[in-house]
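Regression test attached.
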Amino acid sequence: MRFLKYLQKKLKNEEKEISEEYNAFINADLSKYKKGEYILFSEEGVYDHGFDLEEMTEKFKKENPKKSPAVFKIPPKNFSLM
Amino acid sequence: MFWFFNNHDTKVYKYRGTDGAKHPVCEVNFIINNQNGPYKTFMIIDSGADISIIPKTIGEDLGLKKTDLHYLGGVGGRVGYYINYINVELAGKNFTIPVAWLTNDSVPMLLGRKGVFSEFDICFKEKQEIVEFTPR
């Protein structure tokens, strides 16, 4: 019984540690965005994308004053880690 | 049962691809005190980079400071950068990392070794396309 409770607690904690934005990021199709573009993720999914990060962040903050978006930048043209 | 014996504090992040090439990407929260904070990002883990790199626009959003200007040289030419120290939250741990804030937007956000790799045992599992962070 104690072991089962432990497993339930562990599962609950693991669920908590993965953020909604990370889930949205993992499930998004990144191939459809342009190189160098910024993508803003909210808890619901992709909020917006484009090259003007400041404008997109401002718009997000106006609509969701208490929340922060999560930002990912698509690697720009000619970028390689090699 | 293997799952049961895993280190409970280990965080697993998946590889993500944008144009065929897949990179390990993790969630990094920048703890900043301006109107944009806390600032959540997804950074490509670059084990070959000494230091983490922030492109110009994101550095402006983060409110980074223009300290002494340094230059990086490479095949693609020279690019300037400013060193800043930022508090971050990564894989359930809070600590400070140095970042190179570039003067242009020619790179994505890269998570380098300095300040990060000393905090975790990091295991890249290429075949499974995951990277594991275990706090030290």
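Expected vs. actual: identical. Chain A touches chain B through 31 residues (CB under 8 Å).
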